[in-house]
Structures are given as C-alpha cells and as structure tokens.
Amino acid sequence: MLKDRIKVSTETEGYGNLTLGSAYTGYQDFSALGSGNIKTYYAITSGSEWEVGEGTYYSDSSIFSRDQVFDSSNNQDHIYTSGSSVVFVTYPAIASVYLKSSSSPVSGQYLYYDSENGYDVRYISSSDVENATSGTYLRTGDVYLDGTVTYNLTGTGVTTVDISNPTAAKYIIKAEYNGDTQLSECLAVSKGSDVFITTYGLLYTSSDPLVNLNARMYNGYINLEAQAQNSNTSIKILKTLI
Q1: Strand partners, 176
Q2: Which of 149, 227, 158, 217 is nearest to 188 (CA)?
Q3: Single pTM value for the model
Q4: Could you read off the pLDDT of 77-119 as tens digits, one per residue?
Q5: Which sequence spans correspond to the domains of the chain?
C-alpha cells in the first residue's frame, strides 16, 4: 500500500519497532493508509543515518514494524534510531519500474529487464506469441489460451456455449443464479465424430446444480452445451485449448 505525503516523527530509540508520532506540517500521518495491519514501503532518517525497507503499520496501536531492510547506512541492516527521527512512506528503487527517458510504451510492446541495462521496451513478435490477433487464441508452446467468455442462458433449453477447434480442451465453469453459485471443471476430447467429456470438482450452493453440461461434435468442432435449471442463469467459462 502506498499513499502520498505521509511523514511523521518518532521518539523511539533502538533497532526495533517504532511508535509513530505526529505528522509534519503539510503531510499526512500513517492513518491515511487505512485500518488494520498494512504493508508499505518506508524510509527512516535519524541524524546522519538512514534506512529504506518494507514494514507494517498497525493502526490499532500506531506501531510500525521494520520488517525488511532494502538499503541503509548500516550495511543494509537496521539503523539505531536515537530519538527525534523521521519516518515516511516512499517508493524504493528496488521495487520501482521505469522506462528510459527516450522511450514510451505503445500497443504491442512490453518491458524487458536485464541486469546490465535495467528496463527496456521491446516489441512482441511472432516468435513470442503466434496468432495474437483479435478474435483468435494465443499460442504459447503447445497450449492455446482462449480466454474467458460469459453467456446468459435466457431459457432452460440446451444452449451451445462454446466452440473449440482443437481435439482437446479444459474448461473452468462458473454459473450464477439468484445469489447461488456453481463451480466445476470439465475436460473434453474428440475423436472423429465423437466427443467425450468428464466433469469434476463440482461445487454448488443451491439444492441442485444450476447448469448441466454436455458436448457434441459439429463440422469438426467441439460444441460445449449447457442446460440451465432456471431462466436467466449467467455462466462464465475459462477455456484452455490443448
């Protein structure tokens, strides 16, 4: 969690947790992060000593724990706060992502990191992702990812909710109706004019499953079919084509 302009004093002495004091003029105190035990990045200055790391703000006690030190004037270890120290929220270099000043990302680009040159912008090419066009699936290795599709089953008849052209597919299915939810997984494999499916991991909050699944082959495609128990059932499908 990060928030702008959080900077407070502390009179705590030692290497451990800090009791947070008042915010400096023009700044917020740590309560701006919210309630609970909240992780954030921090920096401490105490005289000429300094420390940057990740810690936890405990809102019920205004205590701040120094969980992990990223860098400090004490050889990357906790410094000794000697009273009248300053604690503030920061975005440390080790956690930051940045572009070279001459570059700005556009569609089709991604960030690449190497230890010598830092982050750079590179273009996605056909050697990275095949068939990455609108309305088609992405191919990475031997697995085809086809995304998530949502259907509204307006009636209780059989509805074709998905069509797949490879010979095998895996589905994760979520159905919702009137506050009830059904989750399941489904494997489908075809051979010639036949398609075989198995469903597993079936979980539902209603007295009966909301949706029953079946499949058939049509024009060389696997047709996954759903039959809702109630009209206006929503069904969402995450599909992996194998």
Answers
A1: 181, 234
A2: 217
A3: 0.46
A4: 999 998 899 999 999 988 776 555 555 555 555 566 555 666 6
A5: 7-94, 97-128, 138-241
